[in-house]
Amino acid sequence: PVKSEEMYNFLYKTAGRCGVYASTVKKILDDNKDHLMFWGAGKAVHHNIRGGLLYHTYRMTKTAAYITSVYNKEPSMLKGCRDINTELLVAGCILHDIGKLYELDTNTFGAAEYTMKGSLMGHGFIGAEMIGRYARAEKLDDENITLLQHMVLSHNGKYEYQAVALPAIPEAMILHNLDMIDAQMYMFEEQEAAINPGEMSGRVFGLEQRVYRPSWRKEA
C-alpha cells in the first residue's frame, strides 16, 4: 500500500535523527537498499509479501514516535528510568529485522525461503552481528553498541519466540511490543480482507484464534 521508495526515504530520513546511532543506521540502510526495496519479512505468518520488510519496519518506526511522546511528556509517579531514549528505540525499530536479509532468500515477487545461515543462526543473531561490525567501523562506543545489539537480540521477547535475550531496558520492551502489534495487525488486516462483514475466518496460526469482521467494517 506504500511505495518502497517512499518507505525507504522515510526510514533513511528518520535514521538521520537517531543521534549517536544515526551514521550506523544510515550506512546499513545505504548498503542494503537494493534488497530492502523488495524483501519480504517472512516466509509465512505476516508481511510475507514484496516490500513486506520495509512496510513492517515503516509502520513500527512511525508508531515508536507516538509511544515515546506519551512516556516522555507525562509526569511519572516513580523515580528511576524517566525518559525513553527515542533515538535508541527508533534505531532499534529500523534495524530489528535487518538480519532477515540473510535469514531469508527472497525473490523479486516477495516469495521467501529460509537460507542455511538463517536456519542455523536466526535473524536476531545475524542482525546483531551486522550491527556490531558497522557500529565499530563508525566508532560508536561500546555501551551504545551493546544497547543497540540488545534491542535486536531481544525484540522477539521470549526465548520460545527465538529471542536470544529477554528485554532488559524499557526501550527493548517497547520494541518487542511494537513488533507484536504490527505483526498481529497485519494478520487481522489480511484475514478481514478475505471475508465479508459479519463473517468469521478460519483459525489463524499466528493469532491462535479465528478473526471476526464486524458488520460495520466496510470496504476501505
The proportion of strand residues reads: 5-15%
Low-confidence stretches: none
Helix content: 40-55%
Pattern of helices and strands: HHHHHHEEHHHHEE
Shape: globular
Euclidean distance between termini CA atoms: 12 Å
General description of the model:
This protein is mostly helical. The chain has ten helices and four strands. The strands form two sheets. A two-stranded antiparallel ribbon has the order 1-2. A hairpin with a 4-residue loop joins strand 3 and strand 4 (209-212).
Topology:
Layout: H1 4-15, H2 22-31, H3 33-36, H4 52-73, H5 86-95, H6 100-103, E1 104-106, E2 112-114, H7 116-121, H8 123-137, H9 142-153, H10 170-193, E3 200-204, E4 209-212
Helix pairs in contact: 1-4, 2-8, 4-5, 4-10, 5-9, 5-10, 8-9
Give a concise summary.
The protein has 220 residues and is mainly alpha-helical. It is built from 10 helices and 4 strands, in the order ααααααββααααββ.
Main attributes of the structure:
mainly alpha, two-stranded antiparallel ribbon, 220 residues, 54% helix, 10 helices, 4 strands
